[in-house]
Amino acid sequence: MPKVQIVFLTPADVDAPTGVSRRLTQVADYTEAMLVKWMKVWDYPPIREQIFQRNADGSVKILFVKSPETLASGKFPLKDGNLSRKGKLLAMQKFKIPKTLDVWWVWVYVGDPPLKYSSYLGSGSAAAGGLSQVNYTNLPGEIFPEDKLAKPFLKELTLKGTIHEFGHALGLPHNGPLIKRDLGMPLMGATIANYRRVMKNQEERGYVTEASAAILWKHPLFMGTADRRYLIPKVVWHDIVVKNDRQKRVAHLTGRITSNVPAHSIIVYDTAPDVHTQYFQKPYVARVDQDGTFDITISEPVSVQAKGVLKVVACCDNGTMTGDGKGRGLKSAHEIKYRTSRTGYQLIK
Questions:
Q1: Any residues with CB less than 8 A from the CB of 51 and at least 6 apart, and which?
Q2: Which SUPFAM superfamilies match (predicted)?
Q3: How far is CA 264 from the centre of its chain?
Q4: Pairing between strand 206-207 and 263-271?
């Protein structure tokens, strides 16, 4: 079974500040509460609600490691894409952790503000595990599970960004909000500043989209089993069509899927580069019926003249998300090109 490994990495001449265990335990509590809450809201309840390793007192297990480089030497990078891998390898060596496909959350601390490590990254999948790297911001204060994600103190801590990168390590792609649902800013969407700039508001609420919940549902960490984890389902799409309902101002993508590993849900990411970036691409979800058919309502179709792509992926029972049966993640999506007109979406052959 994969595990979540939390690593705290510092340069050789920098010590971890006091309170790290308390702070990262609060971060873990908040992360679990947020993910589980929204998985249940969208009717994707996880079998395992606690995904972090804990000590007997309930605090999260943290692997403290030091890099050979010192901050004073200038050789420890303040922006570098490989510190997650370095932190992972140092922790594996120090704590004799076997080579497994775990999910690694590497926190980098180079000193108190204004000093910071500015490279936030994450990637992963249910099959391969994941890596993420974030800055540890040492500020006084407490985090409570009921806090709004973008309240001023949590914004200072970059809590949304740290959980966002952990989300990538779990295999979650970027997605934007469905405005009509009025739930706030998606965890896997734009930064707080960019969201507020585009939406022209001061939103503090955060949420996990239905699409993200569908992807997480069968992840080994939430399932408690890694059965068929490495298998890429051989999905085949049949009879996919887009129907426009001009009266209701929505579109429907319908079709049927067959696969050697059952698909429980289909996700469509509506991407129109000239209208919105990947951080605002709209995700739509539908459950797969027993006969493999599905009907996805595109409730907020692009309303201006534009060209776009509907990226279609299947979420399968072994935790894998695939669109072509060959790769994993959104990059493997089955793509349907379209252009908009007064009558709705018109597919481009």
A1: 4, 32, 221, 222
A2: Metalloproteases ('zincins'), catalytic domain
A3: 19
A4: unpaired
What contacts 278, CB < 8 A, 6 or more positions away? 173, 174, 271
The pTM for the full model equals 0.96
CB atoms within 10 A of CB 310: 24
Distance of CA 15 to the CA centre of its chain: 30
DSSP annotation of 52 reads B
Q: What domains can be seen in the chain, in order of their start residue?
A: 4-223 (3.40.390), 236-347 (2.60.40.10)
Cα–Cα distance for residue pair 120/113, rounded to 1 Å? 16
pLDDT digits (tens, 9 = 90+) for 67-104: 999 999 999 999 877 899 999 999 999 999 998 889 99
> Distance (Å, rounded) from C-alpha 95 to C-alpha 90?
8
Beta-strand relationship, 4-10 and 121-125:
unpaired
Q: pLDDT tens, 45-73?
A: 999 999 999 999 999 999 999 999 999 99
